[in-house]
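Write out this protein's structure.
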Amino acid sequence: MKGGGLVNILSPHPFLFWITVGVPVASKAWQIHPGGAIGFVTGFYLLLVGSKLALAFVVARTRSFLTGATYVWTMRVLGLFLCCFAWDQPLSV
């Protein structure tokens, strides 16, 4: 198994979502109309998998940009902006 698949399996985010939001919404929808619950779960997974596929496609198509000098300088400038914004914020403990 590749590292990305292992990370997805071991990630707590899906479990937290289903425990706190997914199951309550799906069970309430099931009580009203089973088709709503099935639609919720189906739509959720279609959008989840679809968005990951779309992101992988975009990254694959723009791979040369992610290794070029423009990308490196963009990251440096954004990092400088983050440092400036962090400097302006007071420390709260």
